[in-house]
Amino acid sequence: MNERRQLQVPLEPERYELRAASPYHFDLDRREFFKFLGAGLVVVSVLKPVVVAQESGGARQRRGESLPQEINAWLHIGENDKVTVYTGKVEVGQNIRTSLSQAVAEELHVPIEKIELVMGDTQLTPFDMGTFGSRTTPTMNLQLRKVASAARDVLINLAAAQWKTDAQHLVAVDGKVTDPQGNRSVEYAALMKGQQLTETLPAEDPLIPAADWTVAGKPVSKVDGRAFVTGQHRYPSDQKLPQMLYGKVLRSPAFGATLVSVDTQKAEQMGATVVHDGNFVGAAAPTSQLAEAALAAIHAEWKAEPQISNKELFDYLRKNTTEGKDPTGDGDRYETGSVDQAMNAADHQLKQTYTVQYIAHTPLEPRAALASWDGDQLTVWTGTQRPFGVCGQLAEAFRIPEAQVRVLMPDMGSGYGGKHTGETAIEAARLARAAKRPVKVVWTREEEFTWAYFRPAGVIDVISGIRKDGTITAWEFHNYNSGSAGIKTYYEVPNQRIVFHAVKSPLRQGSYRALAATANHFARESHMDELAHAVNMDPLEFRLKNLKNDRLRAVFEAAAKQFGWGETKTQGQGFGMGGGYEKLGNVATFAEVKVDRKSGEVKIARVVTAFECGAIVNPDGLRNQVEGSNVQGLGGALFEAIEFDNGKILNDRLSQYRVPRFSDVPVIETVLLDRKDIPSVGAGECPLIGLAPALGNAIFDATGERLRALPLIPNGLKAA
Amino acid sequence: MSTIHLAINGKPYTVDVDPRTSLLTVLREHLDLTGSKYGCGEGQCGACTVLIDGKAQRSCITRVGSVSEKKITTIEGLANGDRLHPVQQAFLDVGAMQCAYCTSGMIMSAVALLEKNPHPLPNEIVDFMDGNVCRCGTYLRIISAIQKAAKATPETAAAKGASR
Prior knowledge:
CATH topology of the largest domain in chain A: Aldehyde Oxidoreductase, domain 4
Strand content of chain B: 15-25%
Number of domains of chain A: 3
Mean pLDDT of chain A: 91
Helix content of chain A: 25-40%
Distance between the termini of chain A: 42 Å
Structural class of chain A: alpha+beta
Largest sheet of chain A: 7 strands, mixed
Number of helices of chain B: 6
CATH topology of the largest domain in chain B: DNA polymerase, domain 1
Shape of chain A: globular
Structural class of chain B: alpha+beta
Oligomer: heterodimer
CATH class of the largest domain in chain A: Alpha Beta
Shape of chain B: globular
Strand order of the largest sheet of chain A: 9-10-7-17-14-15-16
Distance between the termini of chain B: 30 Å
Number of strands of chain B: 5
């Protein structure tokens, strides 16, 4: 597949949580409004909700991903010589505060220490859909480079006017414009004198080519790393305001339950602010202990419908498709050639089914928000990948215009796609409104495991037809529920039928780092391994025979070389591979496992990943992302799975839900292919997708046992 | 409610709380020492790790009433003014973090390890640190950082940092 076709693959499929209904429907007691806004505003406030509900809905539709063209929306040079950069993207551990600073430093020609990024503040930064889909590097990095480059040109012209000389003779170096001939220079700050850069971005402005980068393209350590190693950085859950209360929310005993009756009298007598509004019941108090005690004193009765357990999951997914209604908004079917005919004519046919379980993101920092009302203005500090999305959710929940809501996102304790929604923001704001004081809500680990959303489970059927010489002639692929990201095959097959079947999921599901690309690559790359064995071909040779995409071939070849593919194995050893492309990046991962057949223990000895994402912006940050993807990927590949029954999560604690630890981590070798001729793209997701099939294929290589379910070995391999 | 006296980072504090309250809650809510993090509430993730008399303890499952006579060190008390503790410096140099929410706990555990065993082997690091979770998966870098700190540390510096 060539570069152009690769770019046409939809970038943002299946983000189920964004289409989910609002978690709460508040009545918003009129008396509360009344008291809240003050007597003089009664008439206005009673009429307001209907009008603004329409306004806020409209505002959300209006905003696309079009980027402001004025430099000052993005960048300001202060009189103190500091360069302030504004972006709606947020820092969740992927290190973009650093990589975006590098991009600005490179084009503006200022030392990186002088740059400060304001990120994810809905009042100060340009609108941004959210930090997901590996979009920061291809879009925001490029945008800020353009902005910085335009600002540099403005500064040079200002100096030229001041010195009455030709701008051609001047250069920008180290935060100054310099006239090498006139032997004079002037600081940016002195040129700007605190003025705004009101100029718009030029249509054509050549950026510095990657081959000539001096700051970008180099390993730069985390720009504010010191605040983290000293414990000084304030995460969302660390935020505090004077007079702040701690809020807790009463949870129903099962998903989808409705409140039948509630008695809050005792809790109120304890000195807590108690709110009962529709299905929402919560308490706020000066200490978290008192809030918890008040919550425990609330007596509530709930009614819930019977629900399935994870034991029936895969059968349920097949039987509960919602055909014709694709919730992802993408095409759910891709067909080319004549699959049925080709399948019948094939020398071999193979039909296999692969499954993936629901897993939890388990960000180490659970959801958290601090909300504060000032009249009818709401300010919320919260951990989210979509501050503007949460702003819209708050406006909708409280029926106020988005302009009256400000969401700020302090660099948070990760998300992995799991923090797109604003539950804690809404909960804290609802309690704060009643308490008339700021309220902070931080979810417990149990709440995070139960009331966040999960990576979708799925069933994938693959049917293939192949010639004796190893040419794949027919390919049919059906994904039930897990999603359409990475569903298309990059192998050259003339006859294909690829279908995504949407399902009414029994659990709340949503985005997870790499989306369904992990599941789809697991199925495809496992199946490729099975096909290679069916025709007695080497799995690498078999892949390359059916693969034309040069960038993908290059990563497979680079990983194979580093790994030493083809070397002889020892007893119990197994080698396997998996790879593909996603979010415009290309990855191949090779794994070595060691299996003790007596005990059933599987040790992951070594993982080699080759990755290519265009021109590398920060090789150190990139390596960190690739290594981290492999470590996080180990969990979903080997042992993570959510267990549930009748609307409850059964393993809602870290002692019951196993995540990768130090002792699980193999030797990881990362090979980075730096393609300076290709625009830089993201790296937070793609490196994850090769690991699961590589491990499954390596276990097969060691044991002859084919595992087609993720997680592969939640309880080790059964002893031989 | 009781009045409890605490010695944290060499400073005396007095709090009026139920002695069964977790040390983590007291640090974060009462004393605004938010460098120690909540991650699981059951001692499984290590994000809340502090040193109690030099030993790494999970403050989320430590009752505040049980530590009133002891020396408590949190991440905020590790640096000596502007000079970072060698373990902090090594984490920074190696880039042993992504979101860094686990970092305080990792550093505190590592300090306790190096105090006990100034030159640990890689498998000794893995064994000691296995109760600390990094969801971003920076474990290999954390191991490198600990090795680097061990190398950079004069024999007694880790112990000094821990007992201060």
